[in-house]
């Protein structure tokens, strides 16, 4: 079966995988996690600011937040990365040197903040407005009520969506390679691609894909677990019925049945 041998040589060449494994672990996986975590942290901070601006009553706060969100959610991720990475390259060189690494993180942060801001806004607005009114009735200021009561509840409700956004950032981190990262800054995709070019087969890229799955699949199941837990909640078991309750139930059931039949 020649076709099966060709598939194995092209995608499952274990010698090529073993050769690139140290680089994928030491360079690619590390940089992918660094880019993703920093982009998520910065995106979370900016997203919370956008969420607060988005629910503000004053138009001069709400409208800019809406425009920002629409722009960065509407543009393709690769376009945003190229615009930021190439448009601010000279400015970045003065601060960080020739490395485009910080600009890649910045671009992913801007994209993530637009989505995370909407996630936070939806979570905050899902909290019953009566809680805010109760806090104000107790003498709390609007800022204190939001910070201590409303926002923590809203954030707890959107934790599954935030984990989903982190998964999206991990996958989008592969697009940073368009900026031309240094050898020590290459992420999983770039390491796998370079090795695939050198070895002449796609096995290193397959191994890079396996590493992406190792990161994203457990997080996906974690999201499903949290989602089910928050949606269903902890259902308490009904207390056992006493003997008197069972007798009453057995006595009333035939009577109710006769009443329905009549």
UniProtKB/TrEMBL annotation:
<dbReference type="InterPro" id="IPR000515">
    <property type="entry name" value="MetI-like"/>
</dbReference>
<protein>
    <recommendedName>
        <fullName>ABC transmembrane type-1 domain-containing protein</fullName>
    </recommendedName>
</protein>
<keyword id="KW-1003">Cell membrane</keyword>
<feature type="domain" description="ABC transmembrane type-1">
    <location>
        <begin position="29"/>
        <end position="223"/>
    </location>
</feature>
<feature type="compositionally biased region" description="Polar residues">
    <location>
        <begin position="250"/>
        <end position="262"/>
    </location>
</feature>
<dbReference type="InterPro" id="IPR010065">
    <property type="entry name" value="AA_ABC_transptr_permease_3TM"/>
</dbReference>
<keyword id="KW-0472">Membrane</keyword>
<comment type="similarity">
    <text>Belongs to the binding-protein-dependent transport system permease family. HisMQ subfamily.</text>
</comment>
<feature type="transmembrane region" description="Helical">
    <location>
        <begin position="204"/>
        <end position="226"/>
    </location>
</feature>
<dbReference type="InterPro" id="IPR043429">
    <property type="entry name" value="ArtM/GltK/GlnP/TcyL/YhdX-like"/>
</dbReference>
<keyword id="KW-1133">Transmembrane helix</keyword>
<feature type="transmembrane region" description="Helical">
    <location>
        <begin position="166"/>
        <end position="184"/>
    </location>
</feature>
<feature type="transmembrane region" description="Helical">
    <location>
        <begin position="33"/>
        <end position="55"/>
    </location>
</feature>
<feature type="transmembrane region" description="Helical">
    <location>
        <begin position="101"/>
        <end position="120"/>
    </location>
</feature>
<keyword id="KW-0029">Amino-acid transport</keyword>
<dbReference type="Pfam" id="PF00528">
    <property type="entry name" value="BPD_transp_1"/>
</dbReference>
<feature type="transmembrane region" description="Helical">
    <location>
        <begin position="67"/>
        <end position="89"/>
    </location>
</feature>
<keyword id="KW-0813">Transport</keyword>
<feature type="region of interest" description="Disordered">
    <location>
        <begin position="241"/>
        <end position="262"/>
    </location>
</feature>
<keyword id="KW-0812">Transmembrane</keyword>
<dbReference type="InterPro" id="IPR035906">
    <property type="entry name" value="MetI-like_sf"/>
</dbReference>
